[in-house]
Amino acid sequence: MGGELTVRLRLRARGERAWQHVAVSDLLPGGFELVLDTPASTPPAQDDPDREQPASADVPAAPTLARPGSSFVPEHAEMREDRVVLYGTIQPQMQEFRYRIRAGSIGEFEIPPVHAESMYRQDVLARGSPGERMIVAPVDGE
Asked: Across the chain, which distance is largest between two alpha carbons, in Å?
């Protein structure tokens, strides 16, 4: 329990055209939660100690969902309790979006299929293959 996994969503449009305004919904397996990365913040420049620093220089970087190596950059991402929803343009070339999840419960869980659909065209939709089963076992000492 508490172990982390990297989810790798692979997305591409069939044919030669890109599809804009697509919502991609990836349900989390039961018992899992999202893990956000907090990028390292850059300290303010110290070249001139008398220069006033903007107030934003003290603000830490916002946590992010996307992991390094993600080639799909959504226009908007929603992190919900039970799913990740990405909004953007799906290209004909394969793209990948990576994010992390953490096991919060012990047991056997189904991996739900990913679902994508155009927000403005009912005839544009896709569904991933049915998911597999995942077993989360306790680590020695738990």
From this structure: 61
Strand order in the sheet with 76-79: 76-79, 83-90, 19-27, 115-118, 125-127
Structure tokens at 67: 């992991």
pTM: 0.78
Gap between the Cα atoms of 20 and 36, Å rounded: 26
Look at the block and give the residue holding tokens 């799913």: 83
Is residue 37 a contact partner of residue 100, using CB atoms and an 8 Å limit? yes
Nearest to 71 by CA among 4, 6, 10, 5: 10
Angle at 43 between CA 37 and CA 46, to 5 degrees: 170
Among 27, 5, 7, 2, CA closest to 80: 27
pLDDT digits (tens, 9 = 90+) for 7-44: 999 999 999 999 999 999 999 998 899 998 776 655 55
